[in-house]
Inverse folding.
């Protein structure tokens, strides 16, 4: 039932944004009463946060799945970058719709939810990449790093991907993204090997 609520809410949020949707709208959309929603969630904001979490989990799972099929460290970095780009690009529609239909007085709450979800997302990305980096260290593919340096290195990699994705989204062409991700990963790899 929880997944049914989230999938229904996701469709409604994509169509109308956070501000235009009520708990009653979501309940009607999935053919249940509001009490069913309140059994699982306190508010529509909780549902929205859970929808974002669900989408992030899908990205992480897909990145791990595809990285597991790669044989080299560099291929794994490039694959992670490509999956992140592809999946994020597909989800831009949700965010664009949310921002377009969210009333000004609700924007602060929307950005707070989005910010909290972003922090969780970065942590999940780090967890997904940690075994890839540890394996590369154990095979002497990249230099040995202490825990703090390793965490910082992974964060820098994620930030560089995020910046590249943003730049392509705002000013570039999507066909440039894969080439730029490859170049960015090669430069990063050379810097830590």
């Amino acid at each position: 039932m929880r997944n049914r609520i989230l999938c229904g809410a996701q469709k409604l949020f994509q169509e109308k944004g956070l501000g235009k949707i009520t708990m009653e709208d979501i309940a009607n959309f999935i053919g249940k009463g509001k009490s069913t929603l309140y059994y699982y969630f306190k508010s529509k904001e909780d549902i929205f946060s859970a929808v974002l979490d669900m989408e992030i989990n899908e990205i992480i799972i897909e990145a791990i799945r595809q990285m597991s099929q790669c044989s080299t460290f560099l291929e794994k970095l490039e694959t992670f970058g490509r999956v992140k780009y592809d999946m994020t690009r597909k989800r831009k529609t949700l965010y664009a719709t949310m921002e377009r239909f969210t009333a000004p007085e609700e924007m602060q709450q929307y950005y707070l939810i989005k910010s909290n979800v972003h922090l969780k997302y970065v942590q999940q990305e780090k967890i997904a990449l940690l075994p890839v980096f540890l394996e590369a260290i154990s095979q002497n593919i990249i230099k040995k790093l202490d825990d703090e340096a390793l965490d910082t290195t992974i964060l820098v990699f994620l930030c560089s991907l995020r910046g590249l994705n943003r730049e392509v989204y705002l000013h570039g062409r999507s066909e440039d993204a894969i080439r730029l991700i490859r170049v960015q990963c090669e430069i990063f790899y050379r810097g830590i090997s």
Q: What stands out?
A: The two ends are 48 Å apart (CA to CA).
